[in-house]
Amino acid sequence: MSSRDRILGRVRRALADVTPDERPYGEAVPRDHLRVHGERTPEQTVELLAENLADYRAVVHRADAEGLPLLVMRLLAERGAREVLVPSGLPTRWTAAADVARIHDRAEHTPQRLDRVDSVVTGCAVAIAETGTIVLDGSSDQGRRRISLVPDHHICVVRVPGQVVSSVPEALERLDPARPLTWISGPSATSDIELDRVEGVHGPRTLEVILLS
Amino acid sequence: MSGTFVGMPAFPEAARAAVHNATLRGNLRHATHTIRAKRARAVAELDDWPALREAGRRIKDHTLRHLDRYLEQLEESVTAAGGTVHWAADAEEANRIVADLVKATGESEVVKVKSMATQEIGLNEALLAEGIHAYETDLAELIVQLGKDRPSHILVPAIHRNRGEIRDVFRSEMGAWGRPAPEDLTDTPAELAEAARLHLREKFLRARVGISGANFMVAETGTLVVVESEGNGRMCLTLPETLISVVGIEKIVPTWRDLEVFLQTLPRSSTAERMNPYTSMWTGTTDEDGPRAFHLVLLDNGRTDALADQVGRQALRCIRCSACLNVCPVYERAGGHAYGSVYPGPIGAILSPQLRGTASEIDASLPYASSLCGACYEVCPVAIDIPEVLVHLRERVVEGGPAVRQGNKVVLKPARGHAAERAAMRAARWAFAHPGTLRAGQRLASRTRRLHPRTLPGPGRAWSGTRDLPAVPAEPFRDWWQRTRAGRDGAE
């Protein structure tokens, strides 16, 4: 007998008390929890996103379409970045003003090569106000998962209010599970020393979020 | 479970050493009290917490009641998305599957995301026996691995270590495993985290095989979810060419939407955050992004035995948040090592004896490692009634009876160590069945009450050393009732 059959057989014997007429999934699982916590205007939702991002030590900036290239240039310059990773579908305008070498996100780059890059600029798929989370889904303006991971400095552009949702339930509805998803809430951190939160372990230690209106 | 814990003494013995270790108690007290208050604040932010908790309980219960169907559905979805599914009935089989998969890649080292399932099966030791080095990359796991220590907490395996001890471990041990710690390393948490970053980075960048567990598996989509903080998980899940995930069969949720409940309750319950820094979700493989090969090893290792127990099966709802450890007065004083398992604390006290059976001394003693205060049940985000299962397992230890072990029905013998308890219970049963004898005994006890000792003799001394023996009243209750109420209120 294969282990598959053995395990499934054990499961079925263990569940001998379960009758076939049990309530189906839809009835067995109540969803009395809230879709959204609190009532907010779209502007207030963006404000809450900014607050919660900052609460977990992400650096929040705001810009309009015109000011964005200059802001990106300034942030990269302040960081002293010489090389910046750019996903293939990132609007070229966003980094147009910056005086840096653009390294394109390519499959053939080794992790060691990515490790020498100073910064990365990406878009995002959705941002969650209640938790201060940005979600990347590997779309062309976000690139492969590793490019927002290996460099120590991540600049993420969120289009507001369009890409902002209030809550986790709303975010899941917008996301496609078939895509590789990365949920990011602040820079890399750990609670492993005396259960106290410290920022800065393996992921980018500086996360800058630009709210683009 | 892991061979690391073979031959552990019973809980009271193991705990005795721990409670006399002032440093350990100080470390645990500091850490658990810090997180307790923070968790309460994070939970209070959500005014629908009871509804989320109930939804979590029901989702998990429903899944467990139809686990066969959801396992088959998951296998289908993962396979359709480009993954390969393996089934492991026990630890040995899981270890062999993983070792063979690693060997097939030609690699002799792997990087690991923290995973309770792989600790449970002793994967690192099994891989080492095959010449494969497994590097733990979670900061706390790294501390445990470098210090040749054992984990003592589900979320923070090195919770028993304070910052000074961690610095000492890093200074003396890092060099033997790779990049040494800086000479002038201090004990500030930020510097310790930096040392770990530098030490592990070279391992991440060259790794070809990653090994993980998973917090959730979605049956309808085949999506796996890993919730973490440091980014070591993302490194292991995306940089290697081959990813092997070892996951307990109870980690399934039916639908994508179900994640909306657990992604709200898990971070707040475990690290007391609105959301943990990083959550990775992947479905099979993606072209040119992340691992090219993905293997999912579905692990039983005692879970179906627990599933067969109609009271005990609720332990399989556990999402490993560790909130129950952080509030437990016994855990706070005894520490995690005394539980003799990778699953310490209240959840460990009901999980280990079900996964491993109650044959060993440590497993038979675990259901007693509790004051039944119920704080664990209060904080549990999936409402596992831990006290109920503890009492149920105590009964199983003392009385024996039918159970399922490795898929087979067995009848457990009553445990040897509880002969006095059983004798006392038998005597009580006999006495209550013979009212005349009971009355005579009670009257005798009342009349001789001035002669009763203040402490018990022999082995009972330990019990009465810290407690007053209950005082025997001057008149038995039944006599008093007869004298004052007889004939009234319709009494006899």
Q: What keywords describe this structure?
A:
heterodimer; A: 213 residues; alpha/beta; Rossmann fold; six-stranded parallel beta sheet; four-stranded mixed beta sheet; 6 helices; 12 strands; B: 492 residues; globular; NagB/RpiA_transferase-like (chain A); LUD domain-containing protein (chain A); FTHF_cligase-like_sf (chain A)
Overview of this protein structure:
Chain B: GO terms for molecular function: 4 iron, 4 sulfur cluster binding; metal ion binding. Chain B: Residues 441-470 are annotated as: Disordered. The complex is a heterodimer of chains A (213) and B (492). Chain A has 6 helices and 12 strands. With 213 residues, chain A is α/β, with parallel strands linked by helices. Chain A has a single domain, classed as Rossmann fold, CATH 3.40.50.10420. In chain A, the strands form 3 sheets. Chain A has a 6-stranded parallel sheet, with helices on both faces. In chain A, strands 8-5-6-9 form a 4-stranded mixed sheet. Chain A has a two-stranded antiparallel ribbon with strand order 10-11. The longest helix of chain A has 14 residues, at 42-55. The relative contact order of chain A is 0.18. The mean pLDDT of chain A is 95. Chain B is α/β, with parallel strands linked by helices and 492 residues long. Chain B folds into 2 domains: 3-299, NagB/RpiA/CoA transferase-like (Rossmann fold, 3-Layer(aba) Sandwich), CATH 3.40.50; 434-485, no CATH class. In chain B, 49% of the residues lie in helices and 12% in strands. Chain B contains 23 helices and 12 strands. In chain B, strands 1-10-7-4-2-3 form a 6-stranded parallel sheet, with helices on both faces. The longest helix of chain B has 23 residues, at 22-44. The radius of gyration of chain B is 26 Å and the shape is globular. At the A-B interface, helix 1, helix 5, helix 6, strand 9 and strand 10 of A face helix 2, helix 3, helix 4, helix 8 and helix 10 of B. Strand 9 of chain A pairs antiparallel with strand 9 of chain B.
